[in-house]
Specification:
The chain is α+β, with helices and mostly antiparallel strands and 688 residues long.
């Protein structure tokens, strides 16, 4: 459990995330105040990348001894609130990342817990009321029924159908989508249901009224920051002296969720709490690190694993609230999300999803929101897939899956050797991997603003070479484990011999152009390359990279994407989307590459320095997206930005923490006998 006092609980930057395993989610501040257009209940259609916001916030009014007070709080203009919910807070807490809020008024204590039953597409609000005298709790909500990325500038056209303890709210059947880019298919439907055993329930006739809501986080991003919702009180629950309990279930109905009914909300909560506790226990047992951070991050990891309909299988939502599933992110995050948490079946299914989606040796960079295809503009996604595949086999010993996957891995490598899309091919002159064509972004530094590719890095990016070597090495080691002959030994040897070309003038280049011209930008990509298993280097070169990262890139919460000493450095990640994108990889701090730097420190026996490098991120887990790690931080202020819940940030902190914890435990034991040098065999500890 993690608790927040009344002042901290009011912080709008503290956000909590609940997910349903289908791509849907519920998002709000800890206190329950909606702060962005994505706040509220969001439900996935099929596939999960198509998502609609159905519900923004409950409306809650407490009546005691002839007095009434609102328990909700809505920001309607900057710093102006409707409702007294914030001032009544006595505190908030999260139990295995399930949030609860407590309020006190006139001697009446009201505790509210929120959760999403897996597969339901429903947000459930549980109310526990303690009072010495009879009280009433009036419940309703603010409804929108819209595409999750857009807001209603005008009063939404919604139809309320009352039916005792169940109310449905329907959007215009086939009417215009709020984005203005199409028509809402099938008339989106929200179902609200009330449960209150032992209380007298009065069903109210819906009286919808417009309610303006201000989204402060959208204002900070230069996005539309006001919305008109449609609200109504729906029920009045009358509790006897002593109080009682009630549950409000709000469900977005889609083909995937319509058959799911929450009949006993309290039993469903107990099941979800037990499931989360088991996720934490399993991760602690699997990783061998039994502490609170592992437990927290393991529960957080569950939010990113979702099941797709097309293609069928497990995938990873790259970040909440606005990202869908991305190939590169999925493969980088796989180790932390699944292997360290004991979720090996999901890891296998996730690998299967992307192995089945390969096209001309490339894995999808992202799946299109309409479910109609994918983008393949990535040079590193397929190579990360090879790394993730080897890690999976190393941890699980699943040689059957290795045998069935090896042909796809070899085909992937064949395409890279002979050439595939976007100029991706092995250079005939040195065996290193070339990539790039005008107007296309291919590496993880992938921002494109109109026709402007901000960080093109065409030619031979250094981390891509590390991944190329690792993919070739993975084929060799998997082949050996299966008793087969490796097919790319020559290509691996040649590329390894050529990699030292990146070492020029006592430092590594970030990229070599096709003609060999070095780009000496100081970025974290060299650390990514050197942390991979087949990249040739020397202890002195590793020490040089460590010094460079520490002196120019390292911050308490990650690494700068470009040295602040560079004239192109942008230290402010904020403003409009164009301004943010221009800074995205030009100085903005990213957490996930920090793990590679930690691996370099551990390779040099610097366990204490590695632990110190993680201290800031460990504290950050409770400072923004509660229990998770943010996407980025501003280069100068280190203020969190981007998605407050990011898959690879969260997963790589877990991996780094486990690696350091195991190194600390090893350092406390007597030194083992030296082992012969050579390529590392497949083993359960091969998580680097």
């Amino acid at each position: 459990m993690y608790t927040y006092g009344p002042l901290a609980a009011r912080d709008p930057d503290l956000e909590v995330l609940l997910t349903d395993g289908l791509g849907g989610f519920a998002l709000s501040s800890v206190a329950g105040v909606p702060t962005r257009c994505y706040s509220g209940l969001v439900v996935s259609a099929q596939p999960p990348v198509q998502r609609r916001t159905h519900f923004v916030s409950p409306l809650e009014t407490l009546g005691v001894a002839g007095r009434e007070v609102t328990l909700h709080a809505l920001e309607i203009a900057p710093g102006v609130f409707e409702g007294r919910g914030l001032e009544l807070l006595t505190g908030a807490a999260v139990w295995d990342l399930l949030p609860e809020r407590e309020q006190l008024f006139a001697g009446v204590r009201v505790r509210r817990r929120v959760f999403m039953p897996p597969g339901s597409g429903a947000a459930v609000f549980l109310y526990d009321v303690q009072s010495r005298e009879p009280v009433t709790l009036r419940l309703g909500g603010l409804f929108v029924n819209r595409d999750m990325h857009h807001v209603h500038a005008r009063v939404p056209e919604l139809q309320f159908s009352a039916g005792g303890r169940e109310v449905t709210v329907r959007g215009p059947d086939g009417g215009p989508d709020s984005s203005g880019n199409g028509r809402a298919a099938g008339g989106p439907v929200t179902r609200a249901t009330l449960h209150a055993p032992g209380a007298v329930i009065d069903a109210l006739s819906p009286q919808p009224h417009p309610q303006r809501v201000y989204y402060r986080h959208d204002a900070a991003r230069g996005e539309p920051d006001h919305e008109v919702t449609l609200g109504s009180d729906l029920w009045e629950v009358n509790f006897p002296a002593g109080g009682g309990r009630a549950a409000l279930v709000v469900q977005g109905l889609t083909p995937a969720t319509a058959a799911h009914t929450v009949t006993d909300p309290w039993a469903a909560y107990a099941q979800e709490a037990a499931r989360r506790s088991e996720l934490a226990r399993r991760a602690q047992d699997t990783s061998g690190v039994r502490d609170e951070l592992v437990a927290t991050l393991a529960v957080a990891a569950d939010a990113y694993l979702v099941r797709r309909e097309r293609p069928a299988g497990v995938t990873v939502i790259a970040g909440y609230p606005w990202f869908a599933d991305w190939g590169r992110d999925s493969m980088i995050a796989l180790t932390g999300l699944t292997l360290l948490t004991g979720r090996h079946a999901e890891a296998r299914d996730l690998l299967g999803t992307f192995l089945a989606s390969l096209r001309r040796g490339l894995t999808p960079n992202n799946f299109h929101d309409d479910g109609g295809g994918a983008g393949f503009n990535t040079v590193d996604g397929a190579l990360w897939l090879a790394v993730a595949l080897e890690r999976y086999v190393s941890v699980t010993g699943d040689l059957g899956f290795a045998r069935s996957s090896l042909p796809a891995l070899r085909e992937l490598l064949d395409w890279h050797l002979r050439g595939t899309d976007h100029g991706i091919r092995a250079d005939d002159r040195d065996g290193l991997l070339l990539a790039g064509e005008p107007g296309v972004q291919l590496t993880w530094m992938d921002v494109k603003v109109g026709g402007w590719v901000v960080t093109p890095r065409h030619g031979k990016p250094v981390e891509v070479q590390g991944l190329w070597l690792a993919a070739l090495g993975a084929e060799a080691r998997l082949s050996d484990a299966l008793g087969e002959r490796p097919q790319y030994v020559g290509a691996l040897a040649r590329a390894r011999e050529s990699f030292p070309a990146f070492w020029q003038g006592g430092a590594y280049a970030d990229t070599l152009a096709a003609d060999g011209t070095p780009d000496r930008s100081v970025r974290p990509n060299v650390a990514l390359a050197l942390a991979l298993p087949d990249t040739p280097t020397t202890p002195a070169q590793v020490d040089r990279v460590i010094r460079e990262v520490e002196s120019q890139l390292l911050t308490p919460v990650g690494v700068h994407t470009l040295s602040p000493l560079d004239d192109r450095y942008r230290g402010n990640y904020g403003g409009t989307q164009v301004q943010r994108d221009a800074a995205y990889h030009q100085g903005t701090v990213w957490p996930w590459p920090l793990t590679a730097f930690v691996e370099l420190l551990l390779s040099r026996g610097e366990v204490r320095r590695a632990r110190a490098a993680l201290a800031g991120l460990t504290g950050h887990v409770w400072e923004a997206g509660v229990g998770h790690v943010s996407e980025v931080f501003a280069g100068d202020s280190l203020r969190p930005g981007g998605c407050p819940f990011q898959a690879w940030s969260t997963a790589e902190l877990l991996r780094a923490h486990v690696l350091v914890s195991l190194a600390e435990a090893q350092a406390a034991r007597p030194a083992p006998a030296p082992t012969p040098a050579g390529p590392r065999p497949l083993s359960t500890q091969n998580l680097t």
